[in-house]
Amino acid sequence: MASLQWLLQLSSSPFLLFAFILLLLKLLFNQNSTKTKPNLPPCPSKLPIIGNLHQLGTMPHLSLRRLSNKFGPIIYLQLGQIPTVVVSSAKLAKQVMKTHDLALSNRPPIFSAKLLFYDCTDIAFAPYGAYWRHIRKLCILELLSAKRVQSFSYVREEEVARLVRRVSESSYPATVNLSKLLGFYANDNLCRVALGRGFSHGRDYDRHGFQKMLEEYQGLLGGFSIGDFFPSMEFIHSLTGLKSKLQSTFQRFDRFFDEVITEHLDPDRHKEEHSKDLLDVLLDIQKSESNEINLTMDNVKAIMLDMFAAGTDTTFITLDWAMTELIMNPKVLETAQAEIRKVVGDRRVVLETDLPHLDYMKAVIKETWRLHPPAPVLLPRESMEDVTIDRFDIPTKTRIFVNVWAIGRDPESWENPECFAPERFVHSSIDFKGQDFELIPFGAGRRSCPAITFGTVSVELALAQLLHSFDWELQSGTEAKELDLTENFGITMHKIAPLMVIAKPHFP
Ligand code: HEM
């Protein structure tokens, strides 16, 4: 009865009623906020300030897999100041890159990327938004579409021929540093498409120290350097010396791009429409007025830099690992060579039209990507809103890594996962195009690699030709199991020791 009276009193005074509703809302909100305390994924024990950083080690993909084996396929880590979720199963990768693809499409601001790139005006590190969508669409339509990729088949054929010449010059039975030559191929193939000429030979190579510049660059872009985990303490980068290294590498690239752009702007330079390189196309777009977004010269340079950062190392790593695995698995090598020699016959040059008939070789490449994905934890994503994955809450602004390296070796998805066996793909529909989440070397969803066609055909043609033109063996006295397979962790990960092999010409 008393409570009824109280209610009557309330209804007679609008002010009191308003205050009462506010109080109720507050109570309700408080109740909800205790109820909705996020149900985070399992988290290994943390230390003050650094959180879980000490558990990353020098090979984060390996440490993260060990933690996943212990705590489950989704784990929550506090990496310095950065809340991070790591996903290590195909099922959960699908949730990240398909179910919640849009909500998880941002790229986090990584300090080293900010200094190495043009203030994140590039594709790979641009935050999700109108600018990123525009640049990505432009690159895919103008530069990386199947039609454009096809129009550059002559560049690949010439560069593969140059690779074969370089291997032949090793004068059998001497050993050849195959890794170095594969690096030249990957760079020149991209440079010719992007900038109209290669830089691996003659004066250019020494003048620009191109290979070295790229190596430095890849090393710096790990995104796993200590300062990247304490964004509010930028001075750490100065203390570790990283800042000055980043700035000097960036300046070298910038000077290099200035030179090449000046060459391209020379009024005497004439290019047929069909043979325009990527820089020609970008400069044309910049001049045309019908542009949705005004492309600045920094934007143009940023796109070029992206192509180098994303395109050369990944192609090189795939070829380097494919050849290493083949040499360590002679039966697989023999089967792949038998297939190619049957399809191509006595013709010395492999053509791109031969590639659709090389099913076993394609299985070799898939198997290489399963065990050695060039970007072992992809590029980081960041949640733009709260999402739920596998009943766990992922709050806004959490960094997400997908451990593709661990997924490729997950016994839930693969039989004998540590064994190099391309046969597993021969009668399987599993592909690497971003639909089968147990094999995602190019990522998947909105943020997947836009150059999947370019990357794949560049790898396939070079590998097919190397297997067709030469018989391969290790130098006498070296056994496959003695090869040093140690890797260098970075945003892309490659073997440290070069592959030294003997290439016996197949054709007299
Ligand atoms: C074997 C070759 C290649 C592999 C395995 C590869 C792999 C990848 C991976 C894993 C990502 C990150 C995807 C994600 O975070 O979900 C990526 C992104 C990217 N790749 Fe590739 N890539 C290759 C070749 C290339 C080439 C040749 C180019 C350029 C010519 C290129 C340009 C890019 C760009 C621009 C991005 C950033 C996409 C974005 O964030 O929107 N890639 N690539």
How many β-strand stretches?
11
Strand order in space, largest sheet: 1-2-7-4
Helix content: 40-55%
The overall average pLDDT, rounded, is 86
What fraction strand? 5-15%
Structure write-up:
This protein has 19 helices and eleven strands. A hairpin with a 5-residue loop joins strand 9 (487-488) and strand 10 (494-495). Strands 1-2-7-4 form a four-stranded mixed beta sheet. Helix 8 (153-168) packs antiparallel against helix 9, helix 8 packs parallel to helix 19 and helix 15 crosses helix 17. Mean pLDDT is 86; it is low at 1-11. The chain has helices spanning 2-12, 14-35, 60-71, 90-99, 111-116, 130-142, 146-151, 153-168, 178-195, 202-208, 210-220, 235-240, 242-265, 278-287, 297-328, 330-344, 359-371, 404-408, 452-469; strands at residues 74-79, 82-87, 175-177, 381-382, 387-389, 392-394, 399-402, 470-473, 487-488, 494-495, 500-505. The chain starts with a helix and ends with a strand. With 508 residues, it is α+β, with helices and mostly antiparallel strands. The structure holds protoporphyrin IX containing FE (HEM). Residues 123-124, 136, 306-307, 310-311, 314-315, 318, 374-375, 378-379, 441-443, 447-451, 454-455, 459 line the site of protoporphyrin IX containing FE.
Short description:
The protein has 508 residues and is α+β, with helices and mostly antiparallel strands.
Set out the fold topology.
Layout: H1 2-12, H2 14-35, H3 60-71, E1 74-79, E2 82-87, H4 90-99, H5 111-116, H6 130-142, H7 146-151, H8 153-168, E3 175-177, H9 178-195, H10 202-208, H11 210-220, H12 235-240, H13 242-265, H14 278-287, H15 297-328, H16 330-344, H17 359-371, E4 381-382, E5 387-389, E6 392-394, E7 399-402, H18 404-408, H19 452-469, E8 470-473, E9 487-488, E10 494-495, E11 500-505
Parallel strand pairs: 2-7
Antiparallel strand pairs: 1-2, 3-11, 4-7, 5-6, 8-11, 9-10
Helix pairs in contact: 1-2, 8-9, 8-19, 9-15, 11-13, 15-17, 15-19, 16-17
This protein binds protoporphyrin IX containing FE.
